[in-house]
Amino acid sequence: MGESAELELLRRIQQGDEEALVALHRRYAALVYSVAYRVLNEQMAAEEVTQDTFLRLWHRAETFDPARGAFVPWLLTIARRQALDTLRRQQRDALRDPVFLDDNPEAWENALPADDSQHAAHHLLRDAAAALPDEQRQPIEMAYFGGMSHSQIAARLGLPLGTVKTRIRLGMDKLRAAWLGEKSEDPTPPSGT
What we know:
By secondary structure, this protein is mainly α.
C-alpha cells in the first residue's frame, strides 16, 4: 500500500467510512501490536493498545499531515504513546493499590490452595506473617500481593532501596523458618532498617 492509497483511506475515514479503517487495520495491526508489545511485554495490554490506536485513528484521522512525515511513522508514534500511557497507568495503579494484611486478612489465607491437607499450612503462614514486624511484613505484602517492585516499594515507603531489600530478606527468612519449623534468629538489622 503506497502513501497515496493511505491518504485516500484516511480521507475516507474522515468521512465515516468504516471499511477504510478496516483496510488500514488489516494492513498495520500486526505492526502496531509489535510496537505495543515491545513497550508493555504483555499480550492482553498490547492487544488493547492496538485497538485503542485504531480507535484514535478513527476519531483523529484529520490530524495526519503528510507534509510533516509519512503515515506509518505517524501511526506507530500514536501506538507508542498509547503503550507508554498504559504502562504509566499500570505503574501508578501498582503504587496506589497495594494489598496489606490489615486491609485484607484473607490475602495470606488465599496464598495457598484451600484443600484440607493445606489447612494447617494456611494457619501457619497467616500466623507467621502476622508475627512479622510491620516494617518487614508491609514490604513483603506490597511485593507479593501488590505486585510492586523493590524500587516501587522504596519510593512508596520513602526508604532507601537497600533498606527495603533487607527488610524483605529478613521477613522472608522468618517466614521460611516458620514454614520449616525452625527457630528464626533475628539478627539486629543495620541501623535505619
